[in-house]
Amino acid sequence: MIQKTILIVDDDLHILEVLEARLSSAGFSVLRASGAHEALVLVKKHRIDLMISDVKMPDMGGVRLLSEVRSRIPNLPVILLTAYGTIPDAVRALKAGAVDYLTKPFDGKELLEKINEILKTASHGSAEISAADQTFYVGESPAMKELYDLIKRVAASDVNVLILGESGVGKECVARIIHQLNPRNDRPFVVVDCGSTPTGLLESELFGHMKGSFTHAIRDKKGLIEAADKGTLFLDEIGNISPEMQVRLLRFLEERKIRRIGDIREIPVNCRVLAATNANLTEDIKEGRFREDLYYRLRVVTLKVPPLRKRKEDIPVFAQNFAEKFCGTHNIPMLTLPDETVKWLCNYPWPGNVRELRNALEAGVVMCRDGILRPDDLHLSDIPEAADKALPEKSSFSLEESERDTIIRALRQTGGVQKDAAELLKISRRAIHYKIKKYDINLSEIKSDGEKGSRGIGHG
What we know:
The chain is an alpha/beta fold. The protein folds into 4 domains: 5-124, Response regulator (Rossmann fold, 3-Layer(aba) Sandwich); 131-304, P-loop containing nucleotide triphosphate hydrolases (Rossmann fold, 3-Layer(aba) Sandwich), CATH 3.40.50; 308-388, Orthogonal Bundle (Helicase, Ruva Protein, domain 3), CATH 1.10.8.60; 399-459, Orthogonal Bundle (Arc Repressor Mutant, subunit A). The protein has helices at 13-25, 36-45, 62-72, 87-95, 108-124, 131-134, 142-155, 171-180, 199-207, 224-227, 243-255, 281-286, 292-298, 315-329, 339-347, 353-367, 383-388, 399-413, 418-425, 429-438, 443-459, and strands at residues 5-9, 29-33, 50-54, 78-82, 100-103, 161-164, 189-193, 208-209, 221-222, 232-236, 257-258, 267-268, 272-277, 301-304. The longest helix has 17 residues, at 108-124. The radius of gyration is 26 Å and the shape is globular.
């Protein structure tokens, strides 16, 4: 095996000695520099596989050094060290292109684990993204190119990531892609739907329980956090968890240990944590509904997935991909998407985002009559109104308004039946009940509108 070379950069000679001793004993070839300018000279002279640099140095900081080195060696993995450990430092380091960061004093064993994982990823190149997520991982819009770049940067590290975006934009797809591009990709990817799991069951689902700890606990049960050990834990709709669960989750994130319900033993768990929400957590913090300390633990790095209406240039690619996928799934000869249909798709506002587009294309493929997919084959409710009312690009949007409108449309389409609307939106009954209360949606008015529409159709 070829010996890997690591460049260490720090103006503290004691840190350099500690790092050199630790890395040399682990079998690495070590180059050391007491400043950024000396490091740049070494980069020109030697082949380097990884660089570890302090953030705060007198001549040139680690972030600027990272930029200078990357201009010479674009794919060089870089770990930044900081004595401050602040959220802004971590975010700045990762956005600048660092694959990970460590706070001083650092644990030598943890550092070696990170280095080995990073070098393993570099040697294998980019991991394959599963076919199930390929449909999301497309698009040429500037917003998506920026998102892809951030995904690749954070994927190689193990920092906690908070994924934000409206319902249906593909937050879970982003989480899966991060897991697939991470060295942990051969370990479990465990999804916890915090929005649909009843509060009383969520604690047991996450932390597990011991036999006899409560009624119906007839056997020991491993929790989902424990099941994600060595892999990735994805907490979907994290904004819906109760204050009590927020406390327990915060404790786990701080100590990386759990205790099953009814047990006195603590179980160490090493998993990466990704979380997602369509809620405005900063507003929830102001209103006292979400803990600020938990928020900062979850969002070392934040990824914002743009709504479909903000990246209309990606819609034709999505549409073609979905059409091909569903033609194959339903054993139907490939359909033609004429310019008229593509233009209509681009003008439609898509309040349900990629999920709504996906469902519409599947319906269109199934209902198409002559091999040419037309707008009326998509069977979207209120097609003329939706297309005519497509909001201009300069309009201001809010996640809450879009989600509220989507729920109202689903309720109208199902005559106000919550169960049917939940199935249409692919969410739980509990989740839609919560959203109806949250957005103060008047069900009686929706049912009344439905009855009027029915009478109008009957008399037409």
